Amino acid sequence: TYLFVYDLMQFCGHSWIFTNMIIRFMSFGKDSLADTFYSIGLVMRLCQLFSLLEILHILIGIDKSRLFPRFLQITERIIVLFVVINSQEEVQGKYVVCVLFFLWNLLDVVRYTYNMLSRMGIHYLPLTWLNFSLCIPLYPLSVLAKAFAICVSLPYFESFGTYSTKLPFPFTFSIYFPYVLKMYLLVLFVGMFFIIQNLFSERKTHLGTGNIKKK
Question: pTM for this one?
Answer without folding.
Answer: 0.90
